[in-house]
Design brief:
This is YhhN-like protein. This protein is mostly helical. Helices cover about 75% and strands about 0% of the residues.
């Protein structure tokens, strides 16, 4: 049933990659983002709720095309999207101490990187710290649910969030590490959009 969707989505990813150095990149990237929102919304059950969260991710994707000019707004959009996701996760999971291990570790590592000026956050510093905590909390929540329930819904969701989380580690290097190699951007896009596809498709198993 969803096989044509995979082909279309992967086709959009390839198109986005082919246009990444052209003026059309903003359009192909936006189409790819709209696609994962549509996949979630077209799925019954939690699809609409997931679609709301993913719509904020899509908005963040669009704003980040403008790089530092719109970076703050893009980060805020992603923060809201992850908060919506955490709200959805609360339907299945009460907050536990385990969920906060990764966020705390993420904050410590980011603080060290910032103090040693390995990353140059500048005016994005407060937004980056809040986003890192919220994203890590959302990801760790999916891991706890996957271990607790061992159900395809939570397993696929955790896989998608894992790819998303890893893509943002590369994004941190790509955007905030001076003179970072350009090929990191390709890794970011690949991991992120495949991760979004898994997150959107996870609703099928809910």
């Amino acid at each position: 049933m969803h096989f044509p969707i995979y082909i279309i989505y992967l086709g959009l990813m390839v198109l986005m990659g082919l246009t990444h150095k052209s003026r059309y990149f903003i359009y192909t990237k936006t189409l790819c983002s709209i696609a994962f929102v549509a996949i979630a919304c077209l799925t019954k059950g939690l699809g609409f709720l997931f679609g709301i969260a993913l719509a904020f991710f899509a908005l963040g994707d669009f704003l980040l095309v403008f790089k530092r000019e719109k970076m703050k707004l893009g980060i805020i959009a992603f923060i809201i999207g992850n908060l919506v996701m955490i709200g959805i996760f609360s339907l299945y999971l009460k907050l536990t101490p385990y969920q906060f291990i990764l966020p705390v570790v993420a904050m410590i590592i980011l603080t060290i990187l910032d103090e040693k000026e390995i990353v140059v956050l500048e005016q994005d510093r407060p937004y980056a710290f809040v986003y890192s905590f919220v994203l890590a909390l959302a990801f760790s929540s999916t891991l706890v649910m996957a271990v607790t329930y061992n159900h395809p819904f939570f397993n696929v969701l955790a896989l998608g969030y894992g790819l998303y989380f890893i893509s943002d580690i590369f994004e941190l290097a790509y955007v905030y590490v001076p003179a970072s190699p350009k090929w990191i951007g390709a890794i970011v896009l690949t991991l992120y959009y495949i991760g979004m596809l898994f997150i959107a498709l996870s609703v099928m198993f809910a």
